[in-house]
Amino acid sequence: MTPETMRYVAATAAGGPEVLTIGSTTVPRPRPDEVLIRVRAAGVNRPDVAQRKGLYPAPPGASPILGLEVAGEVVAAGTEAHGFEIGSRVCALANGGGYAEYCVAPVTQCLPWPKGYDAVRAAALPETYFTVWANLFLHGRLARGETVLVHGGSSGIGVTAIQLAREFGGRAYATAGSDRKCAACVGLGAEAAINYRTSDFAERIAALTEGRGVDVIIDIVGAPYFERNIKCLAMDGRLVEVATQAGSKVEALDLFDVMRRRLTITGSTMRPRTTAQKGAIAKDLREKVWPALDAGRAGPVIYAVFPLDQAAEAHRVMESSVHVGKLVLEVAASETPPTPPSLPRFVVWTARSVAAPASRATLRPAAASHGHHPQSAKVARRGDRHGSRCNSDADRNCSLHAPAGAGPVGPTDVRG
Ligand SMILES: NC(=O)c1ccc[n+]([C@@H]2O[C@H](COP(=O)([O-])OP(=O)(O)OC[C@H]3O[C@@H](n4cnc5c(N)ncnc54)[C@H](OP(=O)(O)O)[C@@H]3O)[C@@H](O)[C@H]2O)c1
């Protein structure tokens, strides 16, 4: 029985994380094409931070409540919402409203939990998988055998881009803001990762590709990288702008570079797309990507899990940029374990991994189980840093479990 009211994360005003408090509001009703989901977990994304600051208001018709992705079970359906029965476990790209006990989403934006997933892992999927599919494969047209440079390789978006590039036969290079994050990118399958604070990524890409350049760039930095991004592109290269965290106004572009190397400069935002467009991406994901998740060849990297009433702390961690992968809010515990329960997690980051400024009291391990995906073992066999043992002692020496070093916080991008 669905209650009349629910708990949700209210943003009392535009501002810092402290504006996020728990409130009570009416449970939303699904429109004809929507389902109502009892939320077990909700992903946290950079665009939520921008929305909290008042820089990225919800589009017309969307819930003003924060939260773009959820996992839970369907408890009600609109008259035209077909495809998932009541009780089905789904994860959904929501148009808003995820930081709450109940959330509506168009049924076409829902996907089943991959095999062996729990709510936390399922909730960490939609926003980055929809975004990366659209930008890396639809706009960026990454083809088998091609190379991609993923800026911000340790971000939620970057982690997914590295894994999917590999899954579809591409070769990824990444940039990140610390050696620890670079090691994590390589552990996830990047051929090489460049610490942009200590080396010039354009010079490194030229060296790594013997002057050829890369076929695709997924950029989240924007204007300050534009000139060097153009330099890094191979013939017929595609630059895909996913975010402009450090500025969007480009001062100079030599059009002759575009002509001579037949370059494409493109980009996109996910949230304003129509339900039909998002539904088409969901269909692609289910057919082409979900089998890789079911088989454990790719999956989310969970950095930390917070209870719903500590959404402010999750935002603090996100803004500190210490994290690798995803931050997730756990809204309600699942009543039954996922099936099958034995599939190891891809990579699990625990509260121990989170350094200041996050308060450890507010964090808890992502899960009791602690495993690694075969892909990690493959990387280890290549002589890399990520050993196959992973217990509390080994963790201290493991690149994917080394203590985080907080880096400076960049200007906030407002798109998503
Ligand atoms: N277009 C779309 O549809 C769409 C959808 C979702 C998200 N996004 C955008 O994609 C970006 C990543 O999102 P996310 O949720 O994955 O965020 P995230 O996990 O918080 O990662 C963002 C990362 O960007 C890096 N960064 C921050 N400021 C930077 C700067 N000035 N220069 C270089 N790197 C910087 C940081 O890593 P380092 O320590 O390596 O610097 C940070 O960890 C965000 O900007 C978000 O708004 C776009």
Give a structural overview.
- With 416 residues, this protein is of the alpha/beta class.
- The chain folds into two domains: 5-125 and 273-375, Alpha-Beta Complex (Quinone Oxidoreductase, Chain A, domain 1); 128-267, Rossmann fold, CATH 3.40.50.
- The chain is 27% helix and 23% strand.
- It has twelve helices and 16 strands.
- The chain has helices spanning 46-52, 119-123, 126-139, 156-167, 179-187, 201-208, 223-232, 255-260, 275-294, 311-320, 374-381, 392-395; strands at residues 5-11, 20-26, 34-44, 69-77, 89-93, 102-106, 110-112, 147-150, 171-176, 192-195, 214-219, 233-241, 264-267, 301-307, 326-330, 347-348.
- Strands 3, 4, 5, 6, 7, 14, 15 and 16 form an eight-stranded mixed beta sheet that branches. A six-stranded parallel beta sheet has the order 10-9-8-11-12-13, sandwiched between helices.
- β12, α8 (255-260) and β13 (264-267) form a beta-alpha-beta unit.
- α3 (126-139) packs across α4, α3 packs across α9 and α6 (201-208) packs parallel to α7 (223-232).
- The radius of gyration is 20 Å and the shape is globular.
- The two termini are 34 Å apart.
- The relative contact order is 0.15.
- The model is unreliable at 337-415 (pLDDT under 50).
- The site of NADP nicotinamide-adenine-dinucleotide phosphate (NAP) has 29 residues, from α1, α3 and α4.
Q: How many strand elements?
A: 16
Calculate the mean pLDDT score and round it.
84
Q: What is the CATH class designation of the largest domain?
A: Alpha Beta
The structure class reads alpha/beta
Ligands bound, unique:
NADP nicotinamide-adenine-dinucleotide phosphate
For the sheet with most strands, the description reads:
8 strands, mixed
**Can you write the helix and strand succession as a string?**
EEEHEEEEHHEHEHEHEHEHEHEHEEHH
Q: Number of DSSP helices? A: 12
Low-confidence sequence ranges: 337-415
End-to-end Cα distance, whole Å, is 34 Å
> What is the percentage of strand-forming residues?
15-25%
Supply Rg. Answer: 20 Å
The CATH architecture of the largest domain can be given as Alpha-Beta Complex
- The backbone outline, from C-alpha atoms, is globular
CATH-assigned fold name of the largest domain? Quinone Oxidoreductase, Chain A, domain 1
Number of self-contained structural domains: 2
How helical, in percent, are the residues? Answer: 25-40%
So, the CATH homologous superfamily of the largest domain? Medium-chain alcohol dehydrogenases, catalytic domain
